[in-house]
Design brief:
Elements lengths: L2 E5 L3 H13 L3 E5 L2 H11 L3 E5 L7 H9 L9 E5 L4 H10 L3 E4 L4 H23 L2 H10 L7 E5 L4 E3 L7 E15 L5 E7 L4 E2 L1 H6 L6 E14 H10 L1 H27 L2 H17 L10 H4 L5 E3 L2 H8 L3 H13 L3 E4 L2 E4 L2 H8 L1
Parallel strand pairs: 1-2, 1-3, 3-4, 4-5
Antiparallel strand pairs: 6-11, 7-11, 8-9, 8-10, 8-11, 12-14, 13-14
Length: 357
């Protein structure tokens, strides 16, 4: 019989939830505040934790933070209970490692469905961590049904994490587009990197266990899988092939960012605009089989239109919006691109490549 810990300061709500779970043949342990909840989580080793957010002394975020740092409870599925949910709440909870949210008043069916799903995924996760292998690990991430980790849908402009947030998950993009941004002292925003299908987001800061040094925001609706920090560290230390793979990703990311930094510092704006066009095209519209080792010139084969706001183009180029628009207009007049609102079509890639060098 699975054991579920319910942490809720309101007695009536706590007992109603416990009653529903007991009818579904779960063993239930109850805590009336965050401190008692942490103690019971450590002593009873529950299979899942349901925890209210707003509690006196130690709130739900504090409970999750403490338990996520304890190796014995870090893998325990954790569902927040809350009377209201906004995007900031969701991001804060997910950054700490929460698996799901349930909004009060809680529907019986929603509660039992969420509990069943998280327990099922926890069982799959344990099997996956025991014998993943690099191929199995990557295949599981790509396949929704086979993946043991929580997957969420994010809307355009939704923030995955902000500068200064504490890392708790590695983000794997199943679909969609994400931008990494950094803000300087004058409040200017720069896009430092782009991420798309098959990319991992937030790896360096997660491994260093330091606050994020940049923000990550969704450019186009995305489906993203969250790998808890504790699970990632277990994989890296237990499986040499997975550790080597992520070392390779880190090395590639450092190399690409250094190259972009040099170009932003020394290239004229026209070249930077061309670089940005080709970067977005390669990243989102002409993906090679091996994006780490495939040169840009080898993977350009077609000319679909690209959709990105002028503000994002300016942040990517590192210039004012007016300057970027002027350069884009010049490229259009020279027959290399076509502009239609926020859509850009590359008409003469060979000439653009020559301009880049």
């Amino acid at each position: 019989m699975k054991t579920i810990l319910v942490i809720e300061d309101k007695k009536e709500v706590r007992e109603n939830i416990a009653e529903m779970l007991k009818l579904a043949r779960y063993e239930v342990v109850q805590a009336s505040d965050g401190r008692q909840g942490v103690a019971l989580a450590r002593s009873t080793d529950p299979d899942l934790i349901l925890c209210d957010i707003m509690m006196p002394e130690l709130d739900g975020y504090g409970v999750l933070h403490i338990l996520s740092k304890d190796p014995n409870t870090a893998r325990t599925p954790f569902i927040f209970l809350t009377a209201k949910v906004d995007q900031h709440q969701i991001r804060s909870g997910m950054n700490l490692g929460a698996d799901d949210y349930l909004t009060k008043p809680i529907d019986d069916i929603d509660l039992l469905a969420a509990v069943e799903l998280r327990l099922k995924k926890a069982g799959q996760m344990q099997q996956h961590v025991d014998q993943p292998g690099l191929t199995g690990f990557l295949n599981a991430l790509r396949q929704v049904q086979a993946c043991p980790y929580s997957t969420f849908r994010y809307a355009k402009k939704q923030v995955l994490y902000a500068e200064g947030d504490t890392p708790a998950n590695l983000y794997y993009i199943r679909s969609g587009q994400v931008k990494h941004t950094k803000t300087d002292a004058s409040a200017n925003v720069f896009i430092t990197a782009l991420a798309g299908k098959g990319d991992f987001v937030g790896l360096p800061d997660l491994l260093q266990d330091t606050p994020y040094t940049e923000s990550a925001e969704v450019l186009h609706d995305a489906e993203i899988c969250l790998i808890p920090q504790a699970e990632l560290l277990t994989l890296l230390t237990s499986h040499a092939d997975i550790g080597a793979y992520f070392m390779r990703l880190l090395a590639s990311e450092v190399k690409q960012r250094n190259e972009r930094l040099l170009k932003l510092a020394y290239q004229p704006v026209r070249k930077r605009v061309v670089e940005a066009l080709l970067l977005v095209y390669r990243k989102f519209y002409s993906l090679p089989d091996d994006p780490i080792n495939t040169p840009l010139e080898q993977d350009i084969s077609s000319t679909p239109f690209m959709t990105l706001s002028r503000e994002n183009w300016a942040q990517l180029v590192g210039a004012s919006m007016e300057t970027v628009i002027r350069v884009l207009s010049d490229l259009r007049a020279e027959g290399m691109i076509k502009l239609s609102g926020n859509q850009i079509t590359l008409l003469d890639i060979d000439r653009l490549l020559r301009l880049k060098h």
